[in-house]
Amino acid sequence: MSSKTSQNSPRSATVHAAEIVREYGPFAGSDKVNGVTYDGQRVWAATGGALVAFDPASGETRRTLDVACDAGTAFDGTHLYQIADARIDKIDPATGKVLASIPRPARGWTRA
């Protein structure tokens, strides 16, 4: 084996110790968080039976949407996307209405 690094070899990264500056939760009715996203103002946490939006500075809950949320959560600048059972829901964060759904990909894991 050569001591040279090939073009396909991963490059080494600088590792820094992480510092926890704030923790949030627990969230009422849930013992875990299934997904998290940030919309520029609020952090959204998927807690199983609801998406909970909270202010990251104060930790205060700002909004709760009663939607199924079993795994990953994302925000595209306009809508929330939430894995729920065997589908991915597109959600209007202002109303909590599910606007559309697609089947989740059949391959890969969507739950921890």
Describe what you observe in this structure.
With 112 residues, the chain is mostly beta strands. The protein has a domain at 35-103: Thrombin, subunit H. Helix content is 0%, strand content 32%. The protein has strands at residues 35-38, 43-46, 51-54, 61-65, 73-75, 80-84, 87-91, 98-103. The strands form two sheets. The protein has a four-stranded antiparallel β-sheet, with no helix packed on it. The protein is globular.
Short description:
Helices cover 0% and strands 32% of the residues.
List the helices and strands and how they pair.
Elements: E1 35-38, E2 43-46, E3 51-54, E4 61-65, E5 73-75, E6 80-84, E7 87-91, E8 98-103
Antiparallel strand pairs: 1-2, 2-3, 3-4, 5-6, 6-7, 7-8
